[in-house]
Every structure is written in C-alpha cells, then in structure tokens.
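Purpose: get a first structural picture of the assembly so the mutagenesis plan has something to point at.
Setup: two entries, given in the order below. No constraints added.
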Amino acid sequence: MIANHSISLIVTQSSDKPEARCHIAAMKPVFCTIVPPHILDRLAQSEDPELSGNAQRTLEHDSLHRTRRRVTALRGVTAPAGTPADTPQRTIYDAGHQETTPGTKVHSEGDGPAKDATVNRANSALGATFDFYLKAYGRHSVDDAGLPLDATVHYGTNYDNAFWDGSQMVFGDGDGQLFVDFTVSVDVIGHELTHGVTQHTANLEYYGQSGALNESLSDVFGSLIKQYALGQTADQADWLIGQGLLGPHIHGVALRSMKAPGTAYDDPHLGKDPQPATMDDYVRTSRDNGGVHTNSGIPNHAFYLVACALGGHAWERAGKIWYATLTGGELASDADFAEFARLTAATARSLYGEGDAIQAVLKAWSQVGVPTS
Amino acid sequence: MRIAITRTGGFTGIERRAELDTSSRPDATHIEALAHRALTPGHCAPAQGVPDGFHYEIKVDGRSIHLADPHLTHDQRELIQLVLKEGA
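Result (structure tokens, whole complex):
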C-alpha cells in the first residue's frame, strides 16, 4: 500500500532544455492549474436545458452503433444524412463496477444535473469537447457528422484507466491510491474523444511512430480543450495531461507534461515519467504498442514549442495547423514523425504563408530532432 | 501453479506486473480452475485492442496468452484482478 509520505512537487525545468528559452514562465516549477471538479459540476448545472429535441437521433444511434467496430476499419464510414446539429447529444451510462458497456442509462441530453458528480463531470467534459471542436474548427462532433457522444462511468472495480472503445467513452474510478476517478481531468476526456476524431480522419495506426502521433494528437487536443474551456493563452496553460488524476500521496503533478516531457511524476509506486522530449532520447520498445505513450513526448513537445513561439490562444494558429494536418486527407495512416512534421510545415505555409507560423513550426521540429526536409 | 500477469498500455502508459504461486494458498483449486478457464482456447482469440486500452499477458506454467481490453471473458478479468491485487 502507499506510504503516507508528504507530497512534494518534483517537477522543475532545467535551464538547458530548449523550452526554457521559450519564455520566462518556463524557468519556474510547473504548478498545477486546476479545473476543479466543483467548477465542472457548476458548469453542468448551468447547462441550457433546451437541448432535449434530439432523443430520436440518439435512439437511431443506439441501434446503429450497438455493434462494436474495429478501430482500424472505420475510414470511409458513411455519415448520417442531414445537417448535424450545433449541440451535442450526450448520454451517460453507469456500468455499476462491472466491465460491460454501455451499462444503465443514467443521464440524457437536457436532463438536469445528476446526484453523481462523476456523471456530471463526464457530461460536462463531453460538452466542453463538443464545443471546442465546433467553435474552434467547425467540426460537428467526433465524426464531423454529429455523432452522439456516449460515455460509460464507474467501469470495473478500482479500474485505473479510461479509453475510447471505437464508438464510446469508458471511464474507471481509479483505485484511489495511485489514481483517482478518471473523469476529474477534462483533458483526459478530450484526449479520449480525440482518439475518435483521429479514427474518423487520418486513422493513424496505433503502433510505433504513427501510434505515438495518434497519442500525441490526443494529448495536444486534450490540452487545447482544457485551455479553451479556461480561456488560457499558451503561456498561462499548464501543458499537463492528467493533472489532478494522481492519488493523494503520489509524487508528481500529472501523467505527462508537454512542456517538459519526462518530468510529470517520479514516485516509488509509479516509477518515473519515461517520456523523451527529443529524438536523442527516443525509446525503442515493443511494449505499449511500441512505446506509443512514451515517444508521444517528442511531437507533444514540438507542439508546445510552436504554440509558445506563436503566443496567444494555442488553439488558434498552432492548433489549426495540427488540426488541418490531421484532417486534411494527406496524412497517411502509417505516417512517421518526419512525415507528420513535413505535413505540418506544408499546412502552416498554406494557411499562413511565409511568416512566423512556418518559422515556428520548422524551428520546433528542429529542436526536438525531427527532420522536416 | 505459477501465474504471472503483465499489464501494459492504458491511458497512463504505466506497466504493472505481478506473479502468484498457488501452491501455498488455501484457494489453490479455485485459482487453478479459473486460470484453466481463462486460458481455454476459444476464450482467448487475439484481440485488436483499442486506443488507451490495457493489454495483458498471462503466463501460466510456461504457457502464455495475450489479451486486450475490452475483449475479456469474466474468468480472465477475475484472474487478472486477483493476481494484480494479491500477487507480488
């Protein structure tokens, strides 16, 4: 069991890291800027109840999507007919600590807040993700065709994970020692739903470098969803993934840091954050689908550097370049880091011409050791 | 019977491994029967897995199978939970 030692923040920036030159804030410890659960709960209570007219579509979806589909075989799936709505269609289910989905329906679109804070947090974060993709990039839900957003909470017992199963979200409660409830971080929920966006667009193969890109894109947009919800600029953001998710006595601030990969945690029970920031420290392994959660640190850090160099709201220019690269149709499902980097540069040029955007993109990839030519 | 389980992947990307020897346990029969059912062919079709889903390797006396969430049988889940919780 976990020893009751004092909590200390172990994350600091060393001055020789490239990001430390980026701005003054990078010299300071990475502090926790929180999206506290009570804020999400309050957001849930302020939801506009006017959204109830979509039950029919939800029912259609239920029958359409009851059969699980292979993650890798979704490209080209026909979008539902009609114009997708500008409002989400969310349904939250409770697995009752079993490992079956979807479970019992406990919240539908337009319902008032539930008694269960986990249900409200999941519902709010699904809404925050829907809003982000619609308002920032004009995307209607995960499939850009208004896919209803379903989530199952209380999955399994002491279950330390959350995942996108190809058609819906699944959240565990955590074991309470190493990890708490996986609905506490809006970026975790944004991360998972972005796996759905990737599945419906470039469909990056979940192995090796294309898998690490798949993971990185989920971290990038997961973080942007949190920044958008909080109205933060690049220099105000914490650039952490899973902040608030670690158990009360775990030494660390989050699961991953885009600002300083490899520094999110260092704990006797969890080990040390293994993420590299540059290709010099690229990890070759067959575990974890070829290190998809490890080497994602490299493209994560490249995005952070671009956002930091361009300043302002990271979802506006840096995020748009990454989004257009993901969804533009040219990104191959087996793309490696270099192919992705070249495409982001081409996208930056076509969106913003020969200006600071393309310069920031080229410099960022160079700093993390990924060639763009 | 020695049962070793390695769990990889997941949103956290943090690996867990635990091993359990049934020989000194009062519930040896139950666990061995569970392990037998968990490894029965037909119950362990190789699964594609999902993004951020856990992957599991179960080794029983030299035999091993690979599994991925959420495509597990009830017996496989029970065995994994028990070994990761009570194994060393």
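Chain B touches chain A through 21 residues (CB under 8 Å).
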